[in-house]
Amino acid sequence: MSVVAGSEPGLGLRPYEDVAALRRGLDGIATLHDDGVAISDEAGFRGEAIDRVVASAVFGDDALKTTARWLIRVAAPQLGAFPASIHDLYLAAGRGEYANATAPAINVRGLTYDVARTIFRAAQATDTKIVLFEIARSEMGYTEQRPAEYAAAVLAAAIKQHHRGPVFIQGDHFQASAGAYAKNPEAEIKAVRDLAQEAIAAGFYNIDVDASTLVDLSLPTQAEQQRRNYAHSAELTAAIRSFEPDGVTVSVGGEIGEVGKDNSTVADLHGFMDGYLPELKRLGDETGRTLTGISKISVQTGTSHGGVVLPDGSMADVSVDFGTLAELSRAAREDYQLGGAVQHGASTLPESAFGRFAEANAIEVHLATAFQNTMLDSAAFPADLKERIYAHLDANHGDERKSDQTDAQFYYTARKRAFGPFKRELWNLPEETRSAIMADLEPVFALIMRNLGVAGSAALVDRIVRPVDVPVPSPAQAGALVHSELTGEGE
């Protein structure tokens, strides 16, 4: 039986016991200093060490998590993998330097280290470097993955798989809740702003701002309908620019149509952008800065998050308006020099549809539920664990069940909520079980990369996206900084 390095037979990945044990475990492999890490045995670090370090970053106590996450963050660039913004690449598409390549933005809800490793393997097999790892504001809650944990798992996977080049980590749907906004607008926008700051500090250099929930279609013109959307999107863009590290231009995305609602139009795009750009300039003028705007725009052309499940558990056919998508992407490029339009909620479409996103020149497509389904419905997924997941959903989320839903429909829509409560149990599945599940996923990732036109993109990405040296204070340095701020010392 094959066993993951750092694990015991039949068990998943094991964290170190504490920070002292982590340091001992790295003896002869890497030495931690206040200003970084010195790696003396690269192969050893990519082997047992990184498996245990990433488990510590997820399941250790607070001190161990903090140390392990910092270690991954500073080690990754030394080993060739660095957090990066896709902004310059998308603007190159807007200038026509490349076309018909739609970036897959993949939401990883569970088994994040294993799934990210599988994505990197598929990317290497297809010579792909246009791929984003993303997690939405809502997903951070039910999967129990804050930005620092998510970024650590993705970067650790890059280290493990010998990835060299940019790692695009994205905050998806950093969304203003319409309900929360109605109760307290300032507090809700502040919550999104604070999350963006937390995510950027963790290495998320791609943020999708989503105030499309605040669009009011009852108003007579597109400009009026989009006013709250463009005003808060500009406000959040300005905040993101104040948080980004020196030398990094965070890729910011806007959104004009809430997924699952009415399809977007070019008039909607104009209504948003013709308000957003002057508002962003006004905010920049107030601070004496020239503020860089969004690099892409998310639109709605017929999909819904997770697809639509029928009473028997099968998926309903979805009709995507690829003509409208192509027209929106063209207008975004030609009228505003953006990378193009972004499509959400597309992973459950048939394989034959993915080539049409590239044909429509969509710059990005967001994919989540189909990969979740492949994992949970894999023949290798333990039946007893699935039964306990469904029992948990009945006991804890039964109030979310609609009166006309069948069991198949309820479990399909609710089972994403199990990734947080069952996170440790999933990570602790035997290596052979996790490997079998990942074997189901890898060809799906590779096929989508080919169909979306990003296979063979590595040289293009390496030419345009260059590493930026971003200092990351060690836990000891961060503690000293906090101490000096509290006491006034060090001024």
From TrEMBL:
Gene3D superfamilies: Aldolase class I (3.20.20.70). Pfam families: F_bP_aldolase. GO terms for molecular function: aldehyde-lyase activity; zinc ion binding. SUPFAM superfamilies: Aldolase. One of its GO terms (biological process) is carbohydrate metabolic process. InterPro entries: Aldolase_TIM, Class_II_FBP_aldolase, FBA_II. This is Aldolase. The lineage of its organism: Bacteria, Pseudomonadati, Thermomicrobiota, Thermomicrobia, Thermomicrobiales.
